[in-house]
Amino acid sequence: MTRMLAFLTAWLLTATAAAGDVYVTTDAQGHKVYTDTPQEIPAKKLDIHSESTDQDAVAKEYSSEMKRYDQADEARSKAQAQQSASKESTRGTAAERAKRCADAKQQYQVLVNNWRIYEPGPNGERTYLTAEQIDKQRADLKKYMDQACAEQ
């Protein structure tokens, strides 16, 4: 569309440059009529200077304008691609957050449902937690679960 507009503008410039003299007359209703061939004799010739258009200069200007349009289109395409990539990375992050939330919920359920909770010792032996230690771990894990699921 923009290329067509640029072409029409260049064509109009060459067409008007070749038009020649311009006359103004007034019709029966009092409206001014501008023309290059007056229909009535009391036409007033306007002092408009025109030059012939250099076809090479017009073609060169048209070519440079098309290059600018192409560069603008390319820049717009790159920006859209970057925006699309940014959306993809956000989706990946959202999926990671959902997984973190699901894992935290699962760990919390295991901690709530089990009564004999232990921590492995340095030699592989089990050290069972007291009721207070279990309550503290449950509270800590609940806090972590709430935080992980709040990010979604």
> Which structural class do you get from the secondary structure elements?
mainly alpha
Which percent band covers the strand fraction?
5-15%
* Alpha-carbon distance between the two ends: 44 Å
Q: List low-confidence stretches.
A: none
Give an overview in words.
- The two termini are 44 Å apart.
- It is built from three helices and five strands, in the order αβββαββα.
- A hairpin with a 5-residue loop joins strand 4 and strand 5.
- The longest helix has 59 residues.
- Helix 1 packs antiparallel against helix 2 and helix 2 packs antiparallel against helix 3.
- With 152 residues, the protein is mostly helical.
Features:
152 residues, 3-stranded antiparallel β-sheet, two-stranded antiparallel ribbon, rod-shaped
Reconstruct the topology from this structure.
Layout: H1 2-17, E1 22-26, E2 32-35, E3 44-46, H2 55-113, E4 118-120, E5 126-128, H3 131-150
Antiparallel strand pairs: 1-2, 1-3, 4-5
Summarize the structure.
This protein is mostly helical. It is 62% helix and 12% strand. The protein has a domain at 20-50.
